[in-house]
């Protein structure tokens, strides 16, 4: 019993956690941590899925992890990648190292592992490395370098270099010329079983098509070798002649249609005042001849001049050779004769319409016959089968690439997926951090790409962070949309849409960043404390500006009134109303007195307290004014959360990843002078100080003292 308990305890993996961001995060530091990752409760994972794009993470590695190709990396795909990597490596601890993948680190205890190791050795040889060197991702970045067109590679694509027979190489080039090619792993275009089968099927169809019209067959070639030219002349005028005979049939059907079927006189009015030629479009649009019931088509006099040349060619090359000179009397063509001509040419036209649509026609009938009668198809099929059989290296090279990429990138993803240690422990930027934004003497490290502006601006404000959205531009690059969280410094006059800054991406490239949207949230308790006073000062300033502007406008209106040419009669001067004047002064006196009384009462109340109570009262008043603002800011800062920012980009964050005040301060750097720097406080352009402020303060103090004396406060204190 004791042995079972000890064995059970021994098999149980001991996890280690660290606390940051307000939640516990697992430490992934050893090979055992990776081997037992499937045992970790998913509720303890920080992220449940993340997108494959918009990350500072290798896109090819992300695509390999995304097994189902849906654009998302999920927990089962992470576990499958970790399990496979641990099985294919002698020691999974190498995943935590960055020096590359040594050949000796690949486990070869089974057939799959042995194949991967052999393929890895081949890659090293192709790259000019020894077996002691480590495989790097760069060694596999261009797969075409690993395959030669002179060797079979298992992809089922055969290039001309694989055959030493001239006729087979010629046949491959002919297939490529007529069917197109498929890229071989070497990068050279080759043929596949599908393209070879299509080529031979098309070649046979072309031969069968030619056999259907054997030379001398009157049915297909009523005019012998001149049939093709005759059909071309026929088809040129067919629609126009058909139109004429249909019009004549309609005229025979109803005599009332004759006038409507012939051109109206107004049609010729268009041609009245201009030079007319046989090629004129308006003339060509007219019927071939005058329409009448059952009329034949005149082939000479009475024919539309725009079509006279084409009809004459038709008569000489088609009608007379087919019908004979005797059949065409008095230079006219009847509807029956036209039908006979059409029927005699129909077989050839139908044959031409059935012409296979393929590029193999260019090879000629003789060459196609040689190809079909030969054994080239069998030879190409054998080469393709031989290539497919040689798939040991080609099939495992993908596994080699995956293993090398996982060795470099998998732990990085885990530290941004299972935990957020890259973000919270300061080892480096997280994969969702796009770079650094410099704006208004500060640097912002929490900067993310924005894939969907509408979705992001809907969800991101729930993070509680002060957010700045910027459009970044750089010559030769597509515009980039980012969002930066401001977590330190003053922001009272910071972000106005249109302001410019500089964004440095993770490659160190600089972009011009223009602010286009701001989400205002508290940044610090200090800012929240002074914000009521700042708002009051801003309100007073705005009112003073408004009052000054209205006064200036009144003066402008009075000074720009047009002076009339004739002086208007002066209105009689109004009598001085002394009662009204006295009332105004009385009202002003009452207002001043009320203000003075209020100040005196306030001062009297203060002086009625003990001296040590006066500061407490002043502090209490300030807390009463600033307290609500500070309290609301405290709640917001306490609840700042990274999750909504990631969720807005398609992540599924599994916890409340807080950004407290100390951590937020580390994400926004403020401008400070270097250590040991000296500076001069003498500013030659500083504003000159005027004593009027001092006199105003002293005058107010005198007024308050006088009011207190008048109220007898000092007498009470001295008595």
Helix/strand-derived category reads alpha+beta
Stretches with pLDDT under 50, minimum 5 residues: 4-9
Which descriptor suits the 3D outline?
flat
Please give the oligomerization state of what you see. single chain
Spatial strand sequence of the major β-sheet? 13-15-14-17-16-11-12-19
> Can you tell me the number of structural domains?
4
From the N-terminal CA to the C-terminal CA, the straight-line distance is 95 Å
Radius of gyration computed on alpha carbons: 47 Å
Helix content class: 40-55%
Number of strands: 19
Main sheet record: 8 strands, antiparallel
Average pLDDT confidence is 81
Number of helices: 25
As a percent range, the share of strand residues is: 5-15%
Structural summary, described in words:
This protein is an alpha+beta fold and 719 residues long. It has 4 domains: 178 residues, no CATH class; 82 residues, no CATH class; 130 residues, no CATH class; 213 residues, no CATH class. It is 48% helix and 10% strand. It has 25 helices and 19 strands. The strands form 6 sheets. Strands 13-15-14-17-16-11-12-19 form an 8-stranded antiparallel sheet. It has a 3-stranded antiparallel sheet with strand order 4-3-18. The chain has a two-stranded antiparallel ribbon with strand order 1-2. Strand 11 and strand 12 form a beta hairpin. About 1% of the residues have low confidence.
